[in-house]
Amino acid sequence: MIPGTPEPNGSAAPLGPSSPQGQASQSGQPQAAGCTNAQQAQPQAAQPAQSQAQGQPQQAASSSFGSTQGYSSQGAPQPPYVQQPYAGGYAAPQYAYASAQAAQPKKGGKGGWIALGIILFAIVFVFTIGALSCSHTVSSLTSGADAFSSMSEEVVTSGDSVGVIDMMGTIQYDGSSCSPEGLRELLKEAEENPDIKAVVLRVDSGGGTATAGEEMAAYVRDFSKPIVVSSASMNCSAAYEISSQADYIYVNETTAIGAIGTIMQVQDISGLLDMLGINIENIASADSKDSSYGTRPLTDEERQYYQDLVDEINETFIQNVADGRGMSVEEVRELATGMQFAGKTSVENGIADEIGTYDDALGKAAELGGITGDGYEVVNLTSTSSDLSYLMDLLGADSGSAAENIDLSQLSAEDLVNLLKEEGVLS
């Protein structure tokens, strides 16, 4: 289960909407170095001289910034140019500095924000590392199928063919070929095409959510034509659960494969919230309803409950592997340490069948599909990703994503919307 700031209130009084100097005062940033107060910024002698040049006494100037703003000392209404007397290049900085002093942060405040930034960066870093590791996770995300819909692109064949499905990325509900919806559509297309005699599943994945892996394993198991797995650099956890249902599994000597196990993450950020002075009170219908929200530590009973839940889900994983590989549950359980195996070891312990390349997998698929000779066509079965799948790729959730050429940190919200419109995701 991978779950998912006060602003200083001291603001300077603006000089007025019609004055550029008034805008500068709101930022509280001096325009000349070395000026620490209004007296340093503006010589006293300059004020009466300039005020007289404008035809207004100093008394009227001060009243325009007091409680009687907009009125003279006699109570008569004044036009805007009288409300905000201009005394040359030094007048606006004078008020800017005077106002900015009231908005100065307390000593050490900047350091606090820096510390907070470092802490938040560390949290994001930990989540990122967890997302990239081999995983068979219990996900806290639930969704409707409509948001993750996927369509396969029509494939035209002209004879005996071997279909190829790329399963590269995180196993999740995103409408791609790494999702139950996407894989189902591609296998259905291969099933209904009489020219496609077998399928090669090209896998490069560290795993993903347990439920998505279970569904996809069922689709592979129920496919009537031969399926051969070609493992790239990684075939782990939920991805391996899916692969275990195939008829034959190839690995490279340096492939990381297996990682049979299930993990659930329950974050506890209550200590961080206390340090930041943030209090979150959960109103729940049951005592343990907020146990996975991360705002408090787990109780011993809750921790044991989640452990039992993970163990139960992992038993489904182990049973699927045992059924798919023709092994006993006890044999698989001995291998279910959560650790990966290299290619040679995986062949020795029964996790995989043979060391071989992608071309070897194509040849094996053709053989199992009853194709004789080398005269067969290789057909890439691809899906049209859903909007959510594209967005997740854009954010770097998948390998080989659009994020390789886009620095999202430099995009504003408007830029991102425009980018999605250009790609046809938004209208």
Automatic annotation (TrEMBL):
Q: Which InterPro entries match?
A: ClpP/crotonase-like_dom_sf, Pept_S49_SppA, Peptidase_S49, S49_SppA_C
Instruction: Provide the family line.
Output: Belongs to the peptidase S49 family.
| NCBIfam families in UniProt | SppA_dom (TIGR00706)
**Source organism of this protein record:** Slackia equolifaciens
The GO molecular function terms of this record are: serine-type peptidase activity
Keyword DNA repair tagged: no
Q: State if Transmembrane helix is listed as a keyword.
A: yes
User: Which positions fall inside the Peptidase S49 domain?
Assistant: 223-369
Name the gene. sppA
Instruction: Name the segments for region: Disordered.
Output: 1-84
Q: What keywords would UniProt list here?
A: Hydrolase, Membrane, Protease, Serine protease, Transmembrane, Transmembrane helix
Q: Which BP terms from GO are recorded? A: proteolysis
Q: Which residues cross the membrane?
A: 113-132
Q: Write out the biased-composition intervals (Low complexity).
A: 16-76
Top-rank taxon of the source lineage equals Bacteria
Query: Coiled coil: which residue ranges?
Result: none
Q: What is this protein called?
A: Signal peptide peptidase SppA
